[in-house]
Protein 1
Amino acid sequence: MEQRYATSPEHVPGMDTAELRKRYLVQDLFVDDEVKAVYTHHDRVVLVGLSPVTVALELGTFPEIASEYFFEHREAGIINVGGAGTITVDGTEYALATGSCLYIGRGARAVVMASSGATGGADAARFYVFSAPAHTAYPTTLVAAGEGIKRELGDPLTSNRRTLNQYIHENGVKSCQVVMGVTQLHPGSMWNTMPAHTHDRRTECYLYFDLPADARVIHIMGEPSETRHLVVGNREAIVSPSWSVHSGVGSASYTFVWAMAGENQAFDDMDGFPIADMR
Ligand SMILES: O=C[C@H](O)[C@@H](O)CC(=O)C(=O)O
Ligand SMILES: [Zn+2]
């Protein structure tokens, strides 16, 4: 598990491109037949990518979380960003088509992920895990792709028409901290989260997917008065600390998983910034 300690906004102006990418961009989460994990100390979020191509993979524990099993003190929201697959939690199998979401509550012991009938890397399941500490156990719950609460946002005329699906949230699947969903850009729309916002109460991560291999998202981060950008490829994640804006524009349409943890779970507890006020 890679360890990344938390950073403060005063650090950002002194960072060059390589350091910004090292701290806030997560690449290589999805490696065939491997479990790849990053511990970001922002709100103690752990990101894990599991890519079961030829073998099933277990989400086991890591020395860095000092737990007997991964979910001893944690919960997670999981989105399948690859082909069809299954997650088996203590003997109960859940089928996840592309874009489906599984919440796993504290206390789950044996968590095994597999592809359904994959014949190679291209159609293998790719499970993206966003985990945070949990104080109690909520039931493990599956939400099929598109079955959460939908919000239609933006306008094609400003290239930000998108459908936001809320899966784990206050009025949906219950959790201690994790709030999670998937936002899909409509064809021809390129901007997410515009106008942009921060939420000083929560850390958020975006995992961009369904982006063509040669396309990129220019992801904007930093305090609204001091922004920087990251050039992000398919199935790469960004860490947005509580003080950072998070918004992006693609060179092609894409979909992304957003997930948060922190002080509260109030989706609308955010501070918006008109782009004219950003620097
Ligand atoms: O705090 C909420 C998150 O940034 C996302 O839900 C925003 C988003 O998906 C969008 O506007 O497209
Ligand atoms: Zn946000």
Protein 2
Amino acid sequence: MASVTGQAWAGTDQGKPLLQLDRLSKSFGATRANEDVSLSIHPGEIHAILGENGAGKSTLMKMIYGVLTPSSGRIMWRGQEVAIQSPAVARALGIGMVFQHFSLFETLTVAENISLSVPESAAALAPRIAEFGERFGLPVDPSALVHSLSVGQRQRVELIRCLLQKPSLIIMDEPTSVLPPSGIPPLFDTLRKLAAEGCAILFISHKLDEIRSLCHHATIMRAGKVVGAVDPTRETNETLARLMIGRELPQPTRSPARPGENPAMELRGLSSIPSDPFGVVLHEIDLSLRPGEILGIAGVSGNGQKELASILSGETPLSGAGRDRVLIDGAACGHMNAGQRRAIGLAFVPEERNGRGAVPEMSLVQNTLLTAHPKGLVRRGLISRREAQTLAEQCIAEMNVRCHGAHAEARSLSGGNLQKFIVGREIKLKPKILIAAQPTWGVDVGAAAAIRQELIRLRDSGVALLVISDELEELMEVADRMQVIFRGRLSPSLSRAEANTAMIGNYMTGGFLQQPRGAQQVEAA
Ligand SMILES: Nc1ncnc2c1ncn2[C@@H]1O[C@H](COP(=O)(O)OP(=O)(O)OP(=O)(O)O)[C@@H](O)[C@H]1O
């Protein structure tokens, strides 16, 4: 098949496997992250890898992409055994990977960014970028500066960069976790087009609906081993979840909220210009959070969620009049930093687990100390290591965190397990207010259900919770009320009964801004 560049798109021989893994294993010390994993991928196949947090999916992908070396087993590429010692070797074979976290320079154009990894000038690349964009439904302006692009557009740039290297196999690690709901169908159209041209796709996702609608095959992993291989189109979410977690998916239970009278936290007419030149300006935000309720903040990512979380948590303390714009228990606290707010009962689960939620090089005990030290873990200047260890161990047990114990480095945990640990650590602080940004990001369906139930339990015990999430379904499940953030402005509050998908979708694109001011105030009241 001819490609737009006149060269053949590799890998259209549907009969023979493109990639075969033969009893591939990988150990990290005593942990068998992958054990005797065997599978085959054919050209044009969209193949899902499904499994609980820590099941070994990322480890497997890293071996295929040359980031990790297998402890034993063989990798066969087009029928030949290969040693993929580095990503450069993988790319030379025709294996590409699109990571969850983009590696683009904000101040360069799309073409300039791509020219950093494809040996051609930005000018020469521009028409090819446009052609690829048209061919695969990835429209993006080659001369646009990356900072002006939405998350979905940035992902397109990453995908085009990968496609320009003509891969026969593309590995995509949770590609939809960064996209707004409206960005998912176009991405799937692109992936289907690629598959139709013979490109194989390895697709990692925790979202069972997506796997069922997109993928031709699914390999299910549990504790490092392959436990099943199915045609996902013939499965239900329940049967997939059962295969994955080995039991039925827990169903959430909730009773109506009984919020307290007085707000635990308020923002009053808060406007803020971020120090980050590419950040979002917040405009006149009014928000009131009461004890015993969960307020959900919905919105397409990049509309001010990060800036709002930073103001609420105290990571961005405010000066001057800003002091009176943020209140905790009725007292002005805009000037307080994150530590001072924690001392008066606020806990915070940030969006980025590595670097902000946890220090990757530190152990889980040390990471526990970072936020729990004011809670009696330091007395007369001395750290009680034993108590810190006990707290970390409780967190591990209660949140079912899979790791080598409390002294394991945070970076050795799989993404979802680290997220569970961070959420558990903040809950253990027994906060009065919990601000949680993307609390179940990258977490498997079973663990996500457990975290959401835990948030509801906290609310029932009188804690005030504010949950910022890109996942509307998550907010529909946990939130008692919802507000939508759009271009730094917050919509009126919607009750559970009012917050249907159509209404929220309308607010997500700024529909609430057209409402007459009076109507907004009535609804908010
Ligand atoms: N560098 C490492 N050092 C030690 N252990 C590791 C390392 N990388 C992964 N592991 C362990 O290997 C196991 C598999 O981890 P992996 O990241 O592959 O899981 P995963 O299925 O991708 O999980 P998630 O869905 O949470 O991303 C886990 O027990 C993890 O703690």
